[in-house]
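re: ur question from earlier - yeah i can do the single chain one, its not a big deal. heres the input i used so u can compare w yours
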Amino acid sequence: MIVVNLTKAKGIAHDVRRAKRTEEFAPHDEVIMKQIPGADADAAEAARAKIRTKYATVQTKIEAAADVDALKTIVEGM
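and the output i got, formated as tokens:
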């Protein structure tokens, strides 16, 4: 029987969450960093805020996961 350490599994899930969030931020970060003419920095920042909210919710769900199956469902849903 394989026993999974839930605390370590949550740590891995958080790493996946951070990587996904960074991936979604990338195009918006570029607009903001480079101040690309014709690109709407306000829209990019609004999109970033939406992404932050999304992943804050995921973070809360990861911490609340009671077992590995719940954690797996959360990670697969990202």
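The helical segments are 6-34, 41-64, 68-76. not sure if urs matches, ping me
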